[in-house]
Write a structure and sequence with these properties.
Keywords: Cell outer membrane, Membrane, Signal. With about 550 residues, this protein is mainly α. The chain is built from 18 helices and eleven strands. Among the domains are: about 40-195 and about 525-555, Serine Threonine Protein Phosphatase 5, Tetratricopeptide repeat (Alpha Horseshoe); about 290-425, no CATH class. It is about 40% helix and about 5% strand.
């Protein structure tokens, strides 16, 4: 073996000596150079990977908190010393955030990273890849992803810099929101002819023509907010691209909840674009699935999904300290009574995405929790604070704090931990015991959104197409969600109610609240701020520190 190795080293040494005085015209095939990579369709796909990784990285955390916890949909209160975190949750809930809020800064970083990575990848492929359909499609996909990131950024921050040239050294100042809107629109329209129109495993998680049309539909529906000019007919036309394709369908009641299970994926008939997650290989989807479980339940469980409040497979008793203590249920994120009021149809399958009221095991027996008198109620004044207290787990609505009408702190006892209805739409997968990563793929656009967007656009004054009516479209979704009678008439409040039920926990509620004029409503734990300038977030201090040409948004 040593002789063989020595021979190889000698040969290499000779080659190195020879090459030092001779110019060898030998193509390099073992290194990634512009001349060798990316060349093939597989290499183009590989080179594009970082863009999708960046999209996945903070969608279920940072992006969710900005879009949901700034509304009445979700709130993460303080529990004594827990979850203060620099008041970043409190500020989102009460609309008191500043340019230094951690979530505001993280959201800017998240989206600019996607855009910057897309710029770099587009530049590499433009220079290196041979002309052909594979290159054209790949560039169109990347530009669609960049346009979607700009749409998300425009929605959150309003006036943002348009920086699309990789390697440019000149700092870009903010572009007006309407200009960003026009840029995104033009990029998507230019990409559509080169994007694929197939669905299924081959294009799952990749941008297709229908993702581009979905983004356009969402932009047009909100155009009055973004630009001051309504574009409802354009919204309808974009929605019709999905409707006329025949590729999508509304999931029936029997499979509605399964769309969000850890087993979801390309087979979902409603998914137009989803972010794939794999607990074994990727991180990022931990908040939506696990952080909505009550931290102090005293158990570890799987939710059965068959009946509200039913559980199966108890694995751990936290109170005894046994089991996987490093992976206990966490996260007291809950909804407000104002948002839960939208779930006012007892026959609606969408009610089952909530844990509410008394909780029971699958066999019907009550879930009992053992604590102490003082552990159950921190205000206990009886003579036996350490005596055992056993009670049935009962999740109660969030109204106000027992610590005071203006308090964001619920306390630190069993009563506090059991306050608030929890959303379990993205069902937690507890088969992975070592971390919080989840297998639930996250849908950004579903077909039901297309149907309800078209209905709203028609109701707001757009011209009906394909024989549709706003009422008929809404009822076509409802018929797959509830056994209650169809609606006989529509109002904007009914449309808002349907969207709240259909897309809870899917990062669209802030968008809806603003469009329906409800973002300034009072709700939850003393959210009373009515400043309309908060419909967009401030440019973070961290961004201005690195780019002094940026101009802060009005009000901040």
């Amino acid at each position: 073996m040593k002789k063989i190795l020595f021979g190889i080293l000698c040969a290499l040494s000779g080659a190195l000596i020879f090459s030092s005085c001779q110019k060898l015209e030998v193509p390099i095939t073992s290194e990634l150079t512009p001349e060798s990579y990316p060349q093939t369709a597989a290499q183009l796909t590989s080179a594009s990977g970082p863009v999708y990784i960046n999209l996945r990285s903070d969608y279920a955390t940072t992006y969710f908190f900005l879009q949901s916890s700034s509304t009445d949909e979700s709130v993460l209160p303080i529990f004594a010393s827990d979850w203060i975190d620099g008041n970043k949750y409190l500020e989102l809930h009460r609309h008191t955030w500043t340019k230094d809020n951690a979530w505001v800064a993280a959201g800017w970083s998240y989206l600019t990273n996607i855009i910057g990575t897309a710029n770099q990848t587009i530049s590499i492929i433009n220079q290196s890849a041979p002309a052909g359909s594979a290159k054209s499609t790949n560039l169109a996909e990347l530009k669609t992803m960049r346009a979607m990131a700009y749409f998300m950024m425009m929605d959150l921050y309003g006036n943002v810099p348009l920086d699309t040239l990789y390697g440019a050294t000149q700092l870009k100042t903010n572009s007006p929101r309407a200009q960003v809107f026009t840029y995104v629109e033009s990029e998507l329209k230019a990409a559509i002819p080169y994007l694929k129109s197939t669905t299924g495993v081959a294009t799952y998680g990749l941008p297709t023509k229908y993702l581009a049309y979905s983004i356009l539909a969402k932009m047009y529906l909100n155009a009055a907010v973004y630009t001051g000019t309504a574009r409802y007919d354009d919204c309808i036309a974009a929605c019709d691209q999905m409707i006329s394709s025949g590729l999508y369908a509304i999931e029936p009641m029997s499979t509605y909840l399964q769309m969000f299970y850890p087993t979801n994926g390309p087979s979902q008939k409603e998914f137009i674009f989803a972010i794939p997650f794999d607990a074994a290989t990727t991180s990022g989807n931990m908040f939506l699935a696990r952080y909505d479980l009550n931290r102090n339940l005293g158990i570890r469980y799987l939710y059965s999904g068959s009946t509200p409040g039913s559980f199966t497979n108890p694995v751990m008793n936290q109170s005894s300290g046994s089991g996987l203590a490093n992976n206990k249920p966490s996260g007291p994120r809950m909804t407000t009574t104002e948002f839960y009021a939208n779930f006012n149809d007892a026959n609606d399958i969408r009610n089952k995405q909530w844990l509410t009221g008394p909780q029971y095991w699958q066999d019907g027996s009550p879930i009992m929790v053992s604590t102490t008198n003082l552990g159950y109620d921190q205000f206990y004044t009886g003579g036996s604070p350490a005596a055992t207290y056993v009670y049935q787990l009962n999740l109660t609505p969030l109204s106000s704090s027992r610590l005071g009408a203006n308090s964001y702190d619920l306390g630190k006892d069993e009563i506090a931990w059991n306050t608030g209805y929890r959303n379990i739409k993205f069902l937690a997968d507890y088969t992975n015991p070592t971390n919080r990563n989840q297998n639930n793929d996250m849908p950004l656009f579903r077909y039901s959104d297309i149907i309800l967007m078209k209905a709203e656009a028609i109701f707001r004054g757009g011209t009906p197409t394909l024989g549709a009516t706003a009422l008929g479209l809404v009822n076509s979704v409802r018929s797959n969600r509830t056994t209650s009678a169809p609606l006989g008439a529509l109002t904007l409040d009914i449309l808002y109610n349907e969207r709240s039920k259909e897309f809870a926990w899917e990062t669209w509620h802030r968008n809806d609240m603003i469009r329906f004029g409800k973002f300034e409503n009072a709700y939850g734990l003393s959210k009373t701020n009515t400043d309309t300038y908060r419909r967009i977030f401030p440019i973070p201090s961290t961004a201005i520190a690195t780019n002094n040409t940026l101009v802060q948004n009005t009000g901040y």
